[in-house]
Amino acid sequence: MDIRELDRRALALTGEMVGHVTADQLTLPTPCPDWTLYGLLRHLVSQNEGFAAAARGEGEALPVWRSGDLGDNPHAAYQASAELVSDAFTADDALDRPFALPEVIEGITFPGRVAISFHLVDYVVHAWDVAATIGAPWEPDEDLTAAALRVAEIVPADGRGPGAAFERATVVPDGVPARHRLLGLLGRDPSWKA
Question: What are the residue boundaries of the Mycothiol-dependent maleylpyruvate isomerase metal-binding domain, all occurrences included (predicted)?
Fold first, then answer.
């Protein structure tokens, strides 16, 4: 399946979770220790804008990755950013174009299909972060979970921990659903509650 279609599904999954957020929940802590729910939603908008810039060949500067604005309607801001990045990923050469991703590593580029897979795993897992924070169900479909799991399995151990894109992997018992294994590989505790 085209990674861009899977990514659109990840964006939709996250958008569904964001659509359930109420104003009084924005100050809640999230499974991402550095962010309240407001901060996480702002990160999601910023990342969509940054990946869209990278798809256009304009992703080198860190400010384009950090300027997301939620305004007075976080869901609308998220939806606009999701549409922006989906449109950018549909370019004919998007899968092969070099993407600069300074939030991953500065000074090198990644082929579009690899960069889009990074985006996909981020949004599948951040959908859980939002869902866990607000107490909503999170049920990515099997294809989405499998694609995200393939990416999570290759995240290097030395690129994890405080200040990195992902926390260190947590221990997840054998026999758990694949989606829980995905969370554990990316440093989440599937039993986390706000």
Answer: 14-131
**Tokens standing for 193?**
């509650």
Residue that is written with structure tokens 């609308």 in the block? 76
Average pLDDT per run of 10 along the chain, which is 194 residues long? 95 98 97 94 98 96 94 97 98 96 90 97 97 97 96 78 73 88 91 87
Residue of 41, 38, 43, 6 lying closest to 124 (CA atoms): 6
Would you list the domain boundaries of the chain? Answer: 3-185
Q: What share of the chain is helix, strand, coil (3-state, %, to 5)?
A: 55, 5, 40
Distance between CA 163 and CA 160 in Å, rounded?
A: 8
CA 186 to chain CA centroid, Å, is 11
- Nearest partner of 5 among 100, 130, 90, judged by Cα: 90
Find tokens 């479909």 and name the residue: 141
Element (H, E) at 88: helix 74-89
165-171: long-range contacts at Cβ-Cβ below 8 A with a sequence spacing of 24 or more?
A: 165/103, 165/104, 165/122
